[in-house]
Amino acid sequence: MLFSCSTSNRYENEVIFRFNIPEGVSSLDPAFASNLGNISATNQLFNGLVQMDENLNIKPCIAKSWERLDSNKTYRFYLRDDVYFHENEVFGESKKRKVKAQDFVYSFNRLIQSDLMAPGKWVFNNVLRLAEEKLAITAINDTILEIKLKEAFSPFLGILSMQYCAVVPQEAIDYYGDKFRSNPVGTGPFKFQYWKENTKLVLLKNPHYFEKDERGVALPRLDALSISFIKDQEVAFLLFLKGDLDYLSGLKGSYKDELLNSRGELREKYQNQIKLITSPYLNTEYLGFLLDSNASVSKNNPLLNKDLRLAINYGFDRVKMLKYLRNGIGEAASSGFVPKGLPSFNAEKLVGYSYQPELAKKYLIDAGYPEGKNLETIVISTTAEYLDICEYMQHQIGELGIKIQIDVNPPATNNELVANAQLRFFRKSWVADYPDAENYLSLFKTSNFSPSGPNYTHYSNEKYDALYAQTMALTNDSLRNINYLKLDSMIVADAPIVPLFYDQVVRFIPNYVSEIGVNPMNLLDLKHAVKELQN
Q: Does the pLDDT at position 445 exceed 80?
């Protein structure tokens, strides 16, 4: 039910879209949109300067156009003048206010304040500072905003499409304080109505939303969103089959075998009632090797030997692994670390690892461990969710003579041990924060060593760092993509990781729902969604 029984009759003829966020939502403040649950909710409530389309192209949003100045170190945005914040008492008697350039100055500076402790403050690391907590962002007038960067950084527009960069009104922050997390005031297609934490979130249609579809029809088309937080995926699946949920995402739980065959196709018995939507997902699942010889766990570590790492990479069949363990969903990571779905991805030009047992045996001999002789047992540290993949590798790599032991840790423990360089061989994944290969390749910069950065392998290569820096200054996309391939090729050659697979976005919707797109960022955008009322 959307609301209590006493009010439900009001909504009999309303088009209410019901979906589940199993991860839960911890905040409706876009400054804390650091996980899929928070992002899914805030994306319905807020807007930024720019947005992405389904092909990851940057499109206008509140900014109708922009230009780059000063050798691409200055961005000037020209804003729409017809965007209003959601009606709220914080705006006084009129209950409404138009968005101005100064609101972005406030919102962006708010994000970097040390007392807020926002996980997204890093997004403005490339913006020039006027003071420690003041960015070089200027409202030239109500509709022109200027941002100055420290140096040219081509992925910047992609970063601005993130929820962290949404506009918020200072009046609401001043009025609600810390409670803005549960009293959000944005500009998005839906506005806040009700939130009982861990139980239900209700958003209503914003009747004053500024965007229209390609036919000039006002958005959104739905009247309300009713969001549940059911952790048990099997329960959510049953509710979806009953028609109590209008959307199901992901493949967690045994229902993947119920819905999909081994080729990743929808089973015939469901084809008249359910639609399957898939897309490349900017998520690379991988195993990482700790290459820091100074780390306490690295004493006598055989995995510091590159030939052994290459033997492991060529020693198991990723294609068969996906077929049997993931119903064919995903693509074998055989073209480096940067996943399919990004413009720089090129499987023809970058040949990565594939199943070549004879080559794996050769590398094992070169490493000094023919048929695994005199090689100590290798420990893979993982979480329960990926135990099956590690067991698959344990069996297949074991055929080469490499003995594998699997340690299973709780996710939080595993993440902490990895970040602090306490594990020699570990499972990780990297989901893109923004749609640019730089987001992946930054994991191998020397300056990004964990725990302060995402270089969990502590890979360090001066040539890599130099080419990376050179690439970031390029504004020509084609030239940058060529360098991205060169950087990824260095990673394949040095093998600091075992890329497992490039993930896929998997969505299931009933046949009475349409216009739910899919994109490689797995961003849920419901402003175009259509749901036909059922009798």
A: yes
